[in-house]
Amino acid sequence: MIFSIYLLIFIFGLIIGSFLNVVIFRLETEKSIFFARSECPKCGAVLKCNDLIPVLSFLIQKGKCRYCSKKISWQYPVVEIITALLFLFVILSQQTKNLYLLDPSLTFRMTFYLIIICFLIIIFVYDLRHYIIPDKIVFPAIIIGLAYRLIYISEIGSYILSAFIPAIFFLSLILISKGKWMGLGDVKLAFLMGLILGWPNILIAFLIAFFSGAIVGIFLILFGKKGFKSQIPFGPFLSGATILVMFFGSKLFYWFEALLFL
Ligand SMILES: [Zn+2]
């Protein structure tokens, strides 16, 4: 019984992931997110229901459009599967023995996590592909984060500080580097991260983002994919680190503490 619930959550995640792909594509083309039929990005053929089954359509059609036979991006199935796995992870990480007896505050927190993860996935993919964090995504996410924190008003001060301090720090880095190290999108994302993670988790997320960004950057330069002066988008590292810390914040904190005081 419990297995079938997890399967349902996974399928729900796949469908939401498919929707996130649509949002990413429509942000690129400036089309309405809700009121347009899905079409093939290459030939413009309007897609039917059986072309739109997450992952399965991609596998059955061997990664090609049924109408023009051009390749479909790997982004589509990958985003669908990652979203489904993260949705499953949110539910599992809350460690409820009986999913039917969820208490309201837990359900509320899980819903918040699921929504925020959707925003972070969009930011991850969009910044990776276009080197931009769209305002249309990061501002609604900040508003949702603020609204969520307003409900638990007693703790809001610490979260607001965790949002403002890194945002100001990033802004000063932009001023020092004249916009070469990061963009304004990263400042807004840092603010969002503070609202989601709070102190000290925000610091752990930044450490992970900076280190993983540096390591990936070095590898890209070593393998000749990038030069020393070329840009690497920082948003994917920030949003990836945020998701990681959302799940493993306290564990990671103890690791870092142990590392620092060895
Ligand atoms: Zn096509």
Structure, explained:
The structure is a single chain. The chain is an all-alpha fold and 262 residues long. It has 2 domains: 1-83; 103-262, no CATH class. The protein contains 9 helices and no strands. The protein has helices spanning 2-29, 56-60, 75-93, 104-130, 135-151, 156-177, 184-197, 201-222, 235-260. Helix 4 runs antiparallel to helix 5 (135-151), helix 4 packs across helix 9 (235-260) and helix 8 (201-222) packs across helix 9. The longest helix has 28 residues, at 2-29. The radius of gyration is 20 Å and the shape is globular. Bound molecules: zinc ion. Zinc ion (ZN) is lined by residues 40, 42-43, 45, 65, 67-68, 70.
The count of helical stretches stands at 9
Structural class: mainly alpha
Average pLDDT across residues?
88
Q: Main β-sheet, in a few words?
A: none
> How far from one another are the termini?
46 Å
* Tally of separate domains: 2
- Percentage of residues in strands: under 5%
**Small-molecule components bound:** zinc ion
Radius of gyration: 20 Å
Number of strands: 0
Instruction: Give the helices and strands as they follow along the chain.
Output: HHHHHHHHH
Question: Which residue ranges are poorly predicted, with pLDDT under 50 across at least 5 consecutive positions?
Answer: none
| Outline | globular
Helix content: 55-70%
